[in-house]
Amino acid sequence: MITPEPRDPLPFFVYGTLRPGGANHDLFLRGRIRTEEPGRLPGALLYDGPGYPYAVEEPGAGAVSGELVTARPESYGSLLTELDRLEEYAPGDPRNLYERVARDVVRGDGTAVRAWVYLAAPAVAARLRARGRPIEGGDWPARR
């Protein structure tokens, strides 16, 4: 498997507050994206967090629903930097809440595309597996 470089212009898979209607969608994405389409991250569970969700990989689990967002080329670098900051991700930092990883996301038509996904960092994922509350159906906006 080829691991993309951190700045490779992959689309982003968003599943929480960055989805349309979410608190951070317009703040971070308005005017900076070229396309936005439904997608699903297979082999993952979604857990409720303190005002935002966490996706945790679980082979054989269901899927997390979200949006596949493609940034405008001229906005990509700054958007990547801002999303890393929002998700409290810094490469190699053991205090990370999330890890940005490249994963295959399935589009509505069934095709897969490689995308950046912010998954719960290992320590956070371990706590969620032990004491977390999974969101049934893997869809953050539908949790209510």
TrEMBL record:
Coiled coil regions in record: none
Source superkingdom: Bacteria
Any single Pfam family the record assigns to this protein: GGACT
Domain Gamma-glutamylcyclotransferase AIG2-like: 12-141
Protein name per UniProt: Gamma-glutamylcyclotransferase (GGCT)/AIG2-like uncharacterized protein YtfP
CDD domains: GGCT_like
Species the sequence originates in: Streptomyces griseochromogenes
InterPro entries, per the entry: AIG2-like_dom, GGCT-like, GGCT-like_sf
Organismal lineage: Bacteria, Bacillati, Actinomycetota, Actinomycetes, Kitasatosporales
